[in-house]
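User: Structure please.
Assistant: Input sequence and predicted structure:
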Amino acid sequence: MSPGEFANEVVRAVERDGVSMIAIDSVNGYMNAMPAEQLLGVQLHELLSYLANHGVTSILTLVQRGVFGGPVEEEADVSYLADTVVLLRYFEYQGAVRGAISVVKKRSGPHEHTIRECRVGAGGLEVGAPLSDFRGVLTGVPEYTGEGTPLMPGEPDRP
């Protein structure tokens, strides 16, 4: 399906079916379907503007390259379109892969600036206390500078 066909399907779903939330998983896939990458921002901006004007909540995911993620490629950086940007990262601690969550952008309301451990469990997303005794969590290989047990109890699942 081309990006234009996708946009038309989304508009039809909103107008015909009353869809109130849409998720684009992922912006990378959307970009790869584009005949010319420089049009990605324009097309997404138009689609997201339409959705916002119709009261539709839009959730977009963006995959970062590498195991722990690196800088976002300029062509895929659509964060300027977002009201809120949530960063999910993997990090290694004591031989286990764990997940971290942080809000890196929020246009309105209180903004949580901490980095917290997170994991998906049987009850859904679990978010732990701030990782205040760690340095370098977002690099993927943090250093623990505190004392005691710093992370959520139990075995890590997947972030």
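The first helix runs from residue 3 to 17.
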